Amino acid sequence: MIDYDSVRQRIAAFDKKNGGDGVEINGAIYYSNGAIRDTEPLGALIDPPRDPQERCKIQLSYWQELQRRAVAEFDEVKSQYLTNAKVGLTEAFTPALPWTEAQAVKKLTELRDNVRELQKRVTAARAELKRNTPQEVLDRRAHFSAARQMATAFVEAVESIKI
User: Fold this and answer.
1) Is 56 exposed, middle or buried (0-12, 13-18, 19+ CB in 10 A)?
2) Cα–Cα nearest to 21, from 85, 65, 51
3) 52, 157, 158, 161 from 153: Cα distances, Å
4) Among 46, 91, 103, 146, which residue's Cβ finds the most Cβ atoms within 10 Å?
5) Spatial separation of the C-alpha atoms in residues 58 and 52, rounded to whole Å
6) CA distance 27 to 108
7) How far apart are CA 71 and CA 115, in angstroms?
8) CB 31 within 8 A of CB 18
9) CB 4 within 8 A of CB 41
10) What is the rounded distance in angstroms from the CA atom of residue 58 to the CA atom of residue 73?
């Protein structure tokens, strides 16, 4: 028999130890410090990796997911405001909107500012990952990127020759 109270306590202790700011990404809970836990109550609880590169990859995923969600919320709220307003413009009568212009602008400004803050976090996480990526990996990526650019230029040059 499973003692669900101790399972909940185990998860609560892990959440608290890792900042309590977990975000679900593909069946796992990621934390800003690089820890991960399974969404299943009896699943794995993984402390932040000691390898800085691995920890930075997890942290980047965390901030990218928060940014993705913030952008989606901004887009949805803006769309909702515009849809309601445009319906009113096409009707024979203009129904009252559930928000004032000032309320809508304030809400969208707050959401936009949140997206911008998260963009800064993503940029910082990318920079940290780059700082913690071994030079040989960066060199391989640069070589691959240069080869890809040359191949792309070759294809474009060949395709541009017409009869």
Assistant:
1) buried
2) 65
3) 36, 6, 9, 13
4) 46
5) 10
6) 30
7) 6
8) yes
9) yes
10) 23
Q: To which residue do tokens 């803006």 refer?
A: 78
* Contacts by residues 125-129 (CB-CB < 8 Å, ≥ 24 positions apart): 125/56, 125/59, 125/60, 125/62, 125/63, 125/64, 126/60, 128/56, 128/59, 128/60, 129/53, 129/56, 129/57, 129/59, 129/60
Q: Which amino acid is at 117?
A: E
122, 63 in Cβ contact below 8 A? yes
Would you list the DSSP string of 48-114? PPSSHHHHHHHHHHHHHHHHHHHHHHHHHHHHHHHHHHHHHHHSSS-PPPSS-HHHHHHHHHHHHHH
> What sign does the CA torsion over 101, 103, 107, 110 have?
positive
State pLDDT tens for residues 20-48: 999 999 999 999 999 999 999 899 999 99
Cα 79 from chain centre:
20
The model carries a pTM of 0.79
pLDDT digits (tens, 9 = 90+) for 119-154: 999 999 999 999 998 778 767 777 888 888 988 988
